[in-house]
Write a structure and sequence with these properties.
Length: 266
C-alpha cells in the first residue's frame, strides 16, 4: 500500500493507493471512518487489475482537521479536487454511508469526471432539523466517549458490538476513532439534504447497495422503489441479514457484486 498527500482549501489531505494500471477506482469512506476502513477491499480490487485510491476526508484519519467545512457540499468538493489532482481517466467512484452521499453529489455535479458509481447504503433519507440536532448531540457524546478509551479498549468495545466483523475491520475502526476530530458531527445537518436533486443529475450507471432496515441500514425499501421508478440508470443489490456496514458484515458478496458491476464499466 502506497500513501501520499495533496493540498486543497488550505488543508493537507492524506490518501492511500493500492495496485497499478489504467482502470482506476476512487473509494470514499463513511462518517468517522478513514481510508483504512475499507479493510481488504483495496488489495482485493487491485488483484483484479484495478488501481485504487482512498482519501481520508477532512476531520478524519490523517487528513487536516480544520474548524469548519463539515457540510456535504464542502466534503464533496474535497473529493472532487482529490480526483482532479490524481488526473485519472474517468474512474469509477465508490462510497459508503457519508461517502456514498459525497459520491452521489460528485456524480451529479461533475458527470464528465467519473464513468460510474457504487453507493453503499448512502444517507438517502429525510431528516428534520430537530432530529438532526438530536442525532448530532448523540453522536458527539458517543465519539467523545470513544476517544477517552485506549486503543485496546476500543477494540474490545467494537468486538462486542460487532462480533461478526473481521479483525482487520475491528482494528481499522478503532484507529479511525483515535484519529478523528469530533467536529465532524456537523455533517449530520447536511448529510441527507438534497439527495433527490442530486439523483436527477446523475447520468452514469450507478449501483445502489442496500441492506436490512431492522439491522440499521439507512436506505429503506420505499426509497429503493422511488429510485427504481424514476432513474433507469440505477441498478440495485440487496444484501440480506446485514445492516449499515454492508461491506464489513458480508464482505464476500459485496466484493463479488462490485467486481461484477465495475467490470462492465471499463
Amino acid at each position: 500500500m502506497k500513501t501520499g498527500n495533496f493540498s486543497h482549501d488550505g488543508i493537507v489531505f492524506h490518501y492511500n493507493q493500492a495496485g497499478e494500471g489504467k482502470k482506476c477506482l476512487v473509494l470514499q469512506h463513511g462518517f468517522s471512518d478513514f481510508a483504512e476502513s475499507w479493510g481488504k477491499m483495496p488489495d482485493d480490487l487491485s488483484k483484479n487489475g484495478y488501481q485504487v485510491f482512498m482519501m481520508d476526508a477532512r476531520g478524519h484519519g490523517r487528513s487536516g482537521k480544520p474548524d469548519q467545512g463539515y457540510d456535504l457540499t464542502t466534503l464533496t468538493n474535497d473529493l472532487i479536487s482529490f480526483t482532479q489532482y490524481l488526473k485519472l481517466d474517468r474512474p469509477v467512484i465508490i462510497g459508503h454511508s457519508m461517502g456514498g452521499s459525497m459520491c452521489a453529489r460528485a456524480l451529479a455535479s461533475h458527470p464528465d469526471l467519473f464513468r460510474a458509481g457504487v453507493l453503499i447504503d448512502p444517507a438517502f433519507r429525510d431528516t428534520s432539523y430537530d432530529d438532526a440536532k438530536n442525532t448530532k448531540e448523540k453522536r458527539r457524546i458517543e465519539l467523545e466517549n470513544l476517544k477517552k478509551l485506549s486503543h485496546f479498549e476500543i477494540i474490545e468495545f467494537t468486538r462486542k458490538k460487532h462480533p461478526n466483523w473481521s479483525d482487520i475491520d475491528i482494528e481499522s475502526y478503532a484507529m479511525s476513532k483515535i484519529f478523528l476530530s469530533t467536529r465532524i458531527v456537523d455533517i449530520i445537518f447536511t448529510i441527507d439534504k438534497g439527495w433527490k436533486e442530486d439523483l436527477k443529475d446523475i447520468t452514469c450507471q450507478t449501483l445502489l447497495i442496500t441492506a436490512d432496515e431492522e439491522r440499521g441500514a439507512i436506505v429503506l425499501p420505499k426509497t429503493v422503489d422511488f429510485i427504481r421508478y424514476n432513474y433507469p440508470n440505477f441498478s440495485f443489490l440487496y444484501v440480506p441479514n446485514v445492516g449499515h456496514s454492508i461491506h464489513r458484515e458480508n464482505y464476500s458478496v459485496t466484493l463479488k457484486e462490485i467486481l461484477k458491476f465495475i467490470s462492465i464499466q471499463f
